[in-house]
Design brief:
The chain has 82 residues and is an all-alpha fold. The protein has helices at 17-20, 40-48, 62-67, 72-79. It has one domain.
């Protein structure tokens, strides 16, 4: 069974629309926290030294709202802020 990789934003890389279309800027490794001019989410996680947005005390934030693949309202719900 193949391991499912969870991207910085919380979506399974294997289901990410960009990766499915072969347009993932990170290639076969998927999203991970690193300095990244293309993905503001990965860059933010890198600067905060976290692996996923869910670990951030500011989750959900404006970056997730603008660039995230998961609906912002759902992020508010799972964070307990809705």
């Amino acid at each position: 069974m193949e391991k499912i990789r969870i991207a910085v934003c919380g979506i399974a890389c294997e289901k990410c629309p960009r990766r499915v279309q072969g347009k993932c800027p990170n290639g076969p490794d998927g999203c991970y926290p690193h300095e990244n001019k293309v993905c503001k989410i990965a860059g933010c996680a890198y600067s905060r030294k976290i692996q996923t947005c869910f670990e951030c005390e500011n989750f959900p934030c404006g970056i997730i709202e603008k660039f995230g693949q998961i609906k912002y309202g759902y992020c508010q719900y799972i964070s307990g802020k809705l």
